[in-house]
Every structure is written in C-alpha cells, then in structure tokens.
Amino acid sequence: MLDTKAKLVYEVSPSQLQAEGSDFESDSLDVPSRLLPTTDWRLRDVGPAELIQLTLGDYGRTLEVQLPHPPDMRAFY
After folding, report:
1. 26 - beta bridge partners?
2. 19-28, 35-44, 68-77: lowest mean pLDDT where?
3. What is the average pLDDT across 32-59?
4. Measured distance CA(16)–CA(26) in Å, rounded
5. Residue 52 bridge partners (DSSP)
6. Strands (DSSP E) found in 1-77
7. How far apart, in whole angstroms, are the C-alpha atoms of residue 9 and residue 12?
8. Half-sphere exposure of 74 (CA within 13 A, CB side)
9. Alpha carbon of 1 to those of 19, 24, 47: distances in Å?
C-alpha cells in the first residue's frame, strides 16, 4: 500500500484482503509493523497519469507505479 502524501509503503499480503463483491475489505493496513523502508521518492505528473518512483530499502529495487488521473467530470455538471 502506498501513502504518497506521507511517502510511506506498507506490505500487504493477499491473505489480508477479503473479497466483497467487486471490491476488497481489510482490517487497517497502515500499521507500523508492516512499514517498509524506502528512499528516493519521485512523484511526477506525466500527462494522463501520476508517476511514482521509489527505492525499496531492504531490497534495493526501484518500484515504479503509474496511476491514471481521474477523468475531469466538471463539464457535465
């Protein structure tokens, strides 16, 4: 789980999620025991998406996630 405002990453295993229809339910996922060490956070707007890059401290690997921007629905109101 990514908290981009606080720049934190939490480890979440699939067994911690319960399917509820087309969504998932879980207990609180942001507990300190699940926190992963990270460095080198970079957040950039890359047109239709937000690009998040960070380094996972224990693994030394770079994680890159692209989250699409929600559509601007203001013109329909």
Report:
1. 17
2. 68-77
3. 92
4. 6
5. 43, 65
6. 2-3, 8-10, 17-20, 23-26, 35-36, 38-45, 49-56, 61-68
7. 9
8. 1
9. 17, 13, 23
Give strand pairing partners of 44.
51
Distances (CA, A) of 68 to 37, 46, 47: 25, 9, 9
What is the amino acid identity at position 61?
R
What token pair was written down for 77? 């109101």
Tell me the two tokens of residue 72.
């601007």
- Look up residue 41 and give its two tokens: 């956070």
Distance CA 56, CA 77 (A): 42
Q: In 10 A of CB 9, how many CB atoms? A: 20
Cα 37 to Cα 55: distance, rounded to the nearest angstrom: 9
